[in-house]
Specification:
With 99 residues, the chain is mainly beta. The chain has strands at residues 2-7, 16-21, 24-31, 34-39, 53-55, 58-60, 67-69, 85-86, 89-91, 94-98. It binds FE2/S2 (inorganic) cluster.
Amino acid sequence: MFVALERLINLQEGYRRGFTVAGRDLLLLVIDDRPLLLENRCPHQGAPLTNATLIGSILRCSRHGVEFDLGSGRPLSVQCPALRRFNLVYDGDRIGIDV
Ligand code: FES
């Protein structure tokens, strides 16, 4: 089932917004004009990533400063799982997720 998250026209560079879909916290970002959907939960110790700092293609969690490469999702400095990414689905003028 398609669940719409946002209208395409609203996806500008720098866009960042959290959603909860089917009990899962998600974070939709636009980086380099491309939308990216992540679990809004740091793989280190679970902090939300809504206020994480973006430095190029690196996302730094605000809780303990662990940095993640957004290309691979992998952490740069500590041993912890990678960021969890979800496939985005387009439907007309909207973007969303299949659940
Ligand atoms: S919870 Fe994100 S760096 Fe520790």
